[in-house]
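User: If you would, consider this record:
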Amino acid sequence: MTDREERYRLLLELSQRIGPTFDLQEILGHLLTSVRLAVNYDAAGVFVLSKAVSRTPERGGPMIAAMAAVGFAPDPNREDPMLRSGKGIIGHVIKTGESVIAPDVRVDPRYVAGRAPTLSEVAVPISSGGRVIGALNLESDRLAAYSATDVQMLASFATAAAIFIDKAILHHQVLEKQHLEHHLMLAGEVQASLLPKDPPQVPGYDIAGINLPTMEIGGDYYDYLPLGRDRLGLVVADVSGKGVPAALIMATFRAALRTELRRDLPLADVIDSVDRLLIDSMDSSRFVTAVCGILEPASGTFTYVNCGQTPPLLAKANGHTVWLDRGGAALGMPVAGGRETASITLETGDVLALYTDGVVEVFAESGDEFGVARLEQVLRAAGAAGAGHINSDVVNATQQHAGRSDYDDDFTLTVVRKLPRNGA
């Protein structure tokens, strides 16, 4: 049998061994077993870089995600400098993508001792898609144990192994993605449980809210909180950023706001207290925009503070429009002079809309923004429709404007409508 035929036979045997498995560790073990039938060794190792397995950015240089070794001391150190910073023969191969034959490691300046009996070494890169994803290394207790022919044989094994390593990595990444998606789904369920399940039942008022996050979890928040003396706390807030960090800040903000509102303090004191907590617990690059208010149903008075939020819109039944723009800077940002509170009065037929910027910053393909003017048109066109119906009208209008059903930013809207005395 010729050398080429023998090589094909061994590669076929390798393929048959590792073809059925997706386990990376098992693949590496089979590789070392098959290599030994072609090229003898006293110690061997095969290494796969972490950057090939995970999309997570590395710190401190390349690390090993998976390895198999024969003939070394048990449990080799995966943080060996030859692997972290391109030192040693294995490190050189990983760094340069070049194969190396060291006939006498004692005189090779690249060599870093891994086992005392080793006298010669050969290493070849494992490459995929034009990048090095690992290395195959053999060591011998004899001088000049390896030749250029051995390098060719090992390169053939490395090429074949790369296919199966890629398969295992892809399988791992799919499982990793599914695992992450599962946890994000659970996180989304937890976050959804923090939002109101049902609108409050307040005589003389129709109130409804909606939250449409762009991701599984988001940074928008709205809430209703029954308070003493038949009052109702209302809030719509937007945490800077998206995803998990924004969701965690949102949960902190919710807990702090609910606690402070229940202390029955003036609204300005509530906001100051929440603001101090956020400054102490958030990175300086983060902030929360919010409109917080207290509705007194009997009088229709709504006392509020706007903390950097897009001003809520009060569409009055008489055709006038009031913007709730009194307040100050966003929460979590040090400000001088505090934040100002203000009050408005809701009268029969008035519609109050509290919303995040994801409601009005919806763009058509032409770049035209939906904007507050169109929002006001939708509110006025609703006539005597209920708050839930108005929410649906706004959703439909923004989606028609954008020409699609998804949003680039979290969409949160709360509508309060003052009913006639008979509740119609």
Summary: The radius of gyration is 33 Å. The longest strand covers residues 131-140. The mean pLDDT is 83. DSSP finds eleven helices and 16 strands in the chain.
